[in-house]
């Protein structure tokens, strides 16, 4: 089939130009409509987020006193835990000195007497400094040997020995010092 166009070319150009304009304006309207729809969507999201932010800020203001109370409770709990720890340590170590003196008394020979006993508490043991007097060197050696063999005493070290004669005709007294560590047995 043959198509015969009887319209002049100017009219045909106007029709195609009109169709192109209509198509172009339709596309422009669709694009502008799409952007407007997107804009209103974003404005709606912004409004919802802003109202949600206000609601959360109000909740935050309401929760601030509760947070302060929780912080105060945490601080008081920490202070109580420290006090409880001190009480536990005190009750755990309350018998260490009587046991120390009992263990020490069983190791002191009859010819030795203590003149001074000083202790310094470490984390899990006591450092002990002993000043004592003895009738002879054998008594000192006997005392050091018994301390070294005792299960709760360790690191027994002699620090000094001095001799002293008080009056003419009396025996010479030997003053000595020693250090050791004491760990409470179970």
What does this structure look like?
By secondary structure, this protein is α+β, with helices and mostly antiparallel strands. It has two domains: 8-94; 96-182, Ribosomal protein S6/Translation elongation factor EF1B (Alpha-Beta Plaits). It is built from three helices and four strands. It has helices at 9-93, 96-107, 137-149, and strands at 112-121, 126-134, 153-164, 173-182. A four-stranded antiparallel β-sheet has the order 1-2-4-3, with helices on one face. It is rod-shaped and about 160 Å long.
| Beginning-to-end CA distance, first to last residue | 118 Å
Based on Cα principal axes, name the global outline: rod-shaped
User: What letter string, H or E per element, gives the SSE order?
Assistant: HHEEHEE
Low-confidence stretches are none
Mean pLDDT: 86
Number of strands: 4
Strand content: 15-25%
Structural class: alpha+beta
Q: How many independent structural domains? A: 2
Q: How many separate helices?
A: 3
Helix content: 55-70%
Short descriptors:
Alpha-Beta Plaits, alpha+beta, 186 residues
Brief sketch in words of this structure:
Helix content is 59%, strand content 22%.
Please describe the topology of this protein.
Blueprint: H1 9-93, H2 96-107, E1 112-121, E2 126-134, H3 137-149, E3 153-164, E4 173-182
Antiparallel strand pairs: 1-2, 2-4, 3-4
